[in-house]
Amino acid sequence: MKPGYVRAMDALYLLCVAIAGFCIVVMTVVIPVGVFFRYVLNSALAWPEPAATLMMIFFTFFGGAACYRARVHISVIVFVGLLVGDTAKKVAAHVVEVAVAALALFMLIWGAELATTTWHQVIAEFPWLLVGITYLPVPAAAFITLLFVLERVWIGQPPPNSFIYREPPSVN
Hints:
By secondary structure, the protein is mainly α. The protein has helices at 2-40, 48-70, 77-82, 86-117, 131-134, 137-154; strands at residues 122-123, 126-130.
């Protein structure tokens, strides 16, 4: 069962990275379009800035979940490393995991509440887009983070053959 869970978490990790990567590309394209129309054509567009903000929301929450799994996220684990003694480090590392799980649970509950409360409102620049949808990354990424916490507590770090440790293909 554990290898299957690790494979599922690898797939979820890849999904988070793909969403974050897509959002960065869209932001990179949308912002210069807005600047070009505003300053070169002297005809400002209303949608580039809100679109980039929406992409940043998706990037932040899904990218944060992926970074947590890969252990490259800014975290309190730095302070755990400063402790003296293996027992103190192990206890503090578990406290950190509990704190991350508590934060993710908070985000899941209140993020879902926020999305539900704002579901019927619309964004002025995108009248077809419900505000509640823009808040869905909060509970979705929190749920994914909880799954990653469960993996770390139940199984430990992803194994060395996990996707997060693979090098990109060489160009030579």
